[in-house]
């Protein structure tokens, strides 16, 4: 699916929220819209193995903080 993104000037959080929901990974960085590719299966497998190896080798006093199971949307209120 192709989406036309006609926009002038800096992007805002409202602009981002008004885009159609199409499961694309988007970020705003200094007013620029950044589209990120989803990780590949091979990437996810490497990260899983690396995480397991690091978990097994770390001392007991260190613990991995779990990643949140949601996507945060931060908005500047200033």
Keywords for this entry:
78 residues, alpha+beta, two-stranded antiparallel sheet, 2 helices
Topology:
Elements: H1 13-17, E1 25-29, E2 32-36, H2 41-57
Antiparallel strand pairs: 1-2
Helix content: 25-40%
Distance between the termini: 36 Å
The radius of gyration computed from the alpha-carbon positions, rounded to a whole number of angstroms, is 18 Å
Strand order of the largest sheet: 1-2
Describe the structure.
With 78 residues, this protein is an alpha+beta fold. The chain has a domain at 13-57. The protein is built from two helices and two strands. The protein has helices at residues 13-17, 41-57, and strands spanning 25-29, 32-36. Strands 1-2 form a two-stranded antiparallel sheet. A hairpin with a 2-residue loop joins strand 1 and strand 2. The longest helix is centred in the middle third of the chain and has 17 residues, at 41-57. The protein is elongated. The two termini are 36 Å apart.
Summarize the structure.
The protein is of the alpha+beta class and 78 residues long. It has 2 helices and 2 strands; from the N terminus they run αββα.
């Amino acid at each position: 699916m192709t989406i036309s993104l006609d926009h002038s000037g800096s992007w805002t959080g409202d602009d981002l929220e008004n885009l159609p929901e199409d499961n694309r990974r988007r970020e705003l960085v200094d007013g620029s819209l950044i589209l990120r590719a989803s990780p590949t299966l091979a990437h996810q497998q490497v990260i899983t193995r690396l995480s397991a190896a690091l978990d097994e080798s770390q001392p007991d006093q260190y613990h991995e903080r779990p990643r949140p199971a949601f996507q945060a949307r931060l908005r500047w209120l200033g």
